[in-house]
Design goal:
236 residues, mainly alpha, Ferritin, 8 helices, 67% helix, globular
Length: 236
């Protein structure tokens, strides 16, 4: 059982080592299923998180400064795996931040997002194992910080966070994955295709979780989900 849920999520959020963060997220999810006690803002204040715990590398650059990926070469596939690992690392942090930041939600909200954090950690480990087995490591290539910057812009509104992060950014990842897999299969990289199978299957569940809680918040506020999402999307 977790004694102070929000502090526990924050502590994992601020863990810098990606593999340790992944391990702790998995443990936290397992513990949450046995029960947890919430800690209010007098115990664990809600603060902005300009940067979650992260390693010194990768260097964060502008998206336009990133190299193009040629999937016909092993180097290009390593660069792709690194970019995907960076997305998954950010996704662990995003899920943990939701648990830390948004207080007063139903118990299932926190269990759902700890599940997401744990699964994103598994995805990260799968991708870093791929990198390691090809003589590379997470941090070897630059990356961008656009996803976390979007998270920061939605700190003050759970509805907007649920609308834009899982339902837009993660859903876009689902859209491009099958095409990416076809290209990887064509060059014979069955391992990376298999890793993407795992990620694709579990990310569908993550989008569903985002959708469920977006609709819940809309219901609490008396807002029509479809029209509200359309308006939010138009203004991103």
């Amino acid at each position: 059982m977790i004694n102070k849920l929000h502090k526990a999520a924050y502590d994992v959020l601020m863990t810098a080592d990606p593999r340790e963060k992944s391990r702790l997220a998995s443990e936290l999810y397992a513990e949450a299923q046995t029960g947890f006690e919430r800690d209010d803002e007098t115990i664990t204040p809600i603060e902005p998180v300009p940067d979650p715990g992260r390693p010194a590398k990768p260097e964060l650059v502008r998206p336009r400064d990133l190299a193009q990926r040629n999937l016909h070469s092993q180097e290009g596939r390593i660069v792709l795996a690194h970019a995907l690992a960076h997305i998954e690392f950010n996704a662990i942090n995003i899920a943990l931040d939701a648990v830390y930041r948004f207080r007063g939600q139903p118990d299932n909200f926190y269990v759902d997002w700890l599940r997401v954090a744990a699964e994103e950690g598994t995805h990260f480990v799968l991708l870093e194992d791929y990198l390691n087995d090809h003589g590379a490591a997470y941090g070897d290539y630059p990356a961008h910080n656009g996803l976390w910057e979007m998270v920061r812009r939605t700190d003050d509104d759970l509805m907007i966070r649920m609308a834009l992060v899982p339902r837009v950014f993660e859903a876009r990842g689902l859209d491009v994955t099958p095409g990416m897999q076809r290209k990887l299969a064509a060059v014979g990289d069955r391992r990376l295709v298999s890793i993407l199978d795992v990620i694709y299957r579990e990310e569908i569940g993550h989008v569903e979780i985002g959708t469920r809680w977006f609709r819940y918040v809309c219901q609490q506020r008396g807002l029509p989900p479809r029209e509200t999402f359309r308006d939010l999307f138009a203004n991103t």
